[in-house]
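Re: weekly structure request thread

Next one in the queue (220 aa):
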Amino acid sequence: MSTVWIIALIAVVVLVVAAVVIVGRGKAGAGGGRGLKRRFGPEYDRVVARHDGDTKAADRELGERVKRHGSLELRPLTAETREQYVAHWAGAQEQFVDSPQRAVAEADKLLARLAADRGFPDGTQYDEQFSALSVHHAAQVNGYRKVHRAAHGENSTEQMREAMIEARELFEVLVTAKPADSGQHRPQHTEDGKDHKGGTGRSGAKWSPSRSDHAKGSGA
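Done, posted below.
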């Protein structure tokens, strides 16, 4: 075989390999995006919006979160520790009537401490802890974002009320989840605070501070 034919054959092989790699990457990227959207749900849309609609940038960020925190394993809570957290959270809810700002600040600290106790990054590194929580509890993590912002900024009583309600969803998951669950089996609550099996959630009845309760307690 002449040198010309050898060079031509090598060139053809290189082109074929390059085409296969390009097509493969395209399929992988598309599949990864769909998989991330299913995994993160509303959080995926929030990240896309933060990247001004750039889905590739969002995929890269969320894919990196999964790489860093996907293998994280929950640490168990003792029954005593669980009950202490439930009591502290109930106290924060009661405090909301007289001081919404102090209540959301306490809720923010409780979530950070509880997440750390369950094996997530330390609460002093909020961004890293939030990223890890979003990988395993994407459906509830926005409540943590809201209560953290409410605790570190100026918000209306209504905004703080909504933050407390959403944050409670994450609290319930973290305080009740078993290590083997890994965020996959979450209690599904109905409007009366009972789960679908007819029982009451382990962390208590569903709570929603009303505007009238706050007005009565605050003397407004």
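Residues 19-31, 182-205, 212-220 have pLDDT under 50 and may be disordered. The chain is about 65% helix and 0% strand.
Next request, please.
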